[in-house]
Amino acid sequence: AKRARRQPEAVIVGMMGAGKTRLGKEMSQMLGIAFEDADEQIERRIGMTIPKYFAKHGEPAFRQVEYDVIDETLGSFDGIYALGGGAPMTPAVRERLRNYADRGGRVIYLLADPSEAMDRARRGGGRPMLDGDADARWMALYEQRDPVYRQVANVIVRTHGMTPKAAARKMIEMT
Ligand code: S3P
User: Fold this and answer.
1) What's the rounded Cα separation, in Å, for the pair 39 and 138?
2) Binding-site residues, ligand 1, Cβ < 6 A
3) What does the record list as coiled-coil region(s) (predicted)?
4) Does 63 belong to an annotated binding site?
5) Within a domain: residue 2?
6) Which of 14, 37, 94, 105 could potentially form a cystine with 18 if both were Cys, beta carbons 3.0 to 4.6 Å apart?
7) How far apart are CA 131 and CA 58, in angstroms?
8) Is 17 labeled as ligand-binding?
9) Which domain CATH number covers 74?
10) Looking at ligand 1, which residue's alpha carbon is closest to its atom 11?
């Protein structure tokens, strides 16, 4: 499909700890293009950390801000764009991603080894969706979300056992 207007080179979805931000940055450096991260955009907009915002306003308010930044960015930014893990669970975000893919956009499902992603997410902290038993929460979310990521993505990149550089190269080759 021909590109009608500015839109990201690629959008990355996947679980917390999969490496969306890390590998998205790596890809953008290899390609010499811009990188944007939805969680960072959200924190700039709300003026506080995501866990603080969750505690103060709750998840639905967070999902609304998340939708707003994604909606704006999908129509105006042309680099690599990493979304937060929960973003595709919002129907309006899925609708936007479908529209982006219909215009020729690439949506990459970054599929890391579950135990490694879970470890990284737990150790990284700052993730209110993992409050309580972080590993059990991660696994329950993974089971819910994996089919949805597969539904919105048009490329699935499995990075099990790869170095970050090799994984980023594979993501570039496959898009
Ligand atoms: C969330 C994932 C986080 C962040 C927020 C909610 C989720 O992003 O958007 O804590 O619901 O999975 P990462 O996937 O970058 O950790």
Assistant:
1) 18
2) 16, 20-21, 39, 50, 84-86, 127-129
3) none
4) yes
5) no
6) 14
7) 13
8) yes
9) 3.40.50.300
10) 86
ipTM of model over 0.85: yes
> For the segment 72-126, what is each residue's pLDDT rounded down to a tens digit?
999 999 999 999 999 999 999 999 999 999 999 999 999 999 999 999 999 999 9
Ligand 1: which atom is nearest the Cα of residue 21?
15
Full residue range of the structural domain in which residue 21 is found = 10-173
Residue in 107, 135, 133, 127 with CA at minimum distance from that of residue 14: 107
* Total of domains in the chain: 1
**Tokens describing residue 78:** 């042309």
Q: Tell whether 1 is covered by a domain.
A: no
Closest ligand 1 atom to Cα of 121: 16
174 within 8 A of 166, measured Cβ to Cβ: no
